[in-house]
Specification:
The chain is mainly alpha-helical. The chain has one domain (2-164). It is built from 8 helices and no strands. It has helices spanning 2-9, 20-44, 49-83, 87-95, 100-127, 133-136, 138-158, 168-179. It starts with a helix and ends with a helix.
Length: 180
């Protein structure tokens, strides 16, 4: 949502390969589909461990692909804005007490990196067998899953996106006022 709103705020719709209004829908649906696949695999683990594990792996790979596409869109928008900032991006940067649109993008990239590392850990965890250390020890789960997600939470609490990027309704109002 933050990326789509940021693109609309700085009027960089032409810099995104996907329409900002569809970004959230596409990536949330992709994530939801991957979770459903993983849940189906988890339900099968007790009856047929190998099949359940394979289905979970398919869901995790789907999640990584979807997330990789999101990061690709974010990098493309960031690079295009850095090379040729829109007038609105320049205006927001000059009025911002923080780092403007680039600061919001940094928060997106840091949070994305932590989530990506966690997702890769989950993929590695499920490629091992039932007796692998990653499956048997909770320490790996705490370090490679919980700690990374806590990091994402902490970053988003400290740099809450609503402080830098208004909601969709406010963006539309701002754009309407500029036209007058």
């Amino acid at each position: 949502m933050v990326l789509g709103r940021l693109i609309m705020l700085v009027r960089a719709e032409a810099y995104s390969p996907l329409r900002p209004t569809r970004l959230t829908k596409i990536f949330v649906l992709g994530d939801l589909l991957s979770f459903i696949i993983q849940i189906m695999g988890s339900g099968m683990l007790s009856n047929n461990f190998n099949l359940g594990k394979t289905i979970i792996l398919v869901g995790l790979v789907a999640q990584l692909i979807c997330f990789g596409l999101f990061v690709t869109v974010a990098v493309l928008v960031w690079r295009r804005l850095a090379q040729d900032p829109t007038p609105m991006a320049k205006s927001l940067d000059s009025r911002s007490t923080g780092n403007g649109w680039a600061g919001v993008m940094r928060v997106i990239f840091i949070a994305s990196a932590l989530i990506f590392i966690r997702s890769v850990f989950r993929l590695i965890e499920f490629t091992g067998d039932q007796d692998s250390p990653l499956q048997k020890s909770e320490a790996y789960l705490y370090v490679c899953d919980s700690t990374l997600m806590f990091g994402v939470l902490a970053i988003l609490i400290y740099f809450h996106p609503s402080e830098y990027v208004p909601n969709k309704k406010e963006i539309m109002q701002m754009q309407g006022e500029e036209l007058i």
